[in-house]
């Protein structure tokens, strides 16, 4: 997600980001913990150079400036952009699964051929 937003992080950086807001210490972010990022950003509790601060800044909308409809349009555009990328990833995954299925079928046919050919030896 951070890479898609234009602020890629290292594996260790991502772990640190999760640890910073992971209240139940399960190594995952729940929706509540995700929202905590924005609460901490608003309260000034995030380091400016941290990945979470970058995340909050990249996905932040000032409703006072753009209004509720502007914020709605911003988030709808973000969702649309992410779903387009997700569709592309789904297409790639489907192609890979199809290729894998064809390879498995080819291996099965080869094995069947070898079994039948063994009869003639």
UniProtKB/TrEMBL annotation:
SUPFAM superfamilies per the UniProt record, alphabetical: EF-hand (SSF47473)
Coiled coil: 78-112
UniProt GO molecular function: calcium ion binding
Gene3D superfamilies: EF-hand
The species this protein was found in: Oryctes borbonicus
Descriptive protein name: HLH domain-containing protein
Keyword vocabulary terms for this entry: Calcium, Coiled coil, Metal-binding, Repeat
Domain named EF-hand: residues: 9-44
InterPro entries for this protein: EF-hand-dom_pair (IPR011992), EF_Hand_1_Ca_BS (IPR018247), EF_hand_dom (IPR002048), EFHD1/2 (IPR040365)
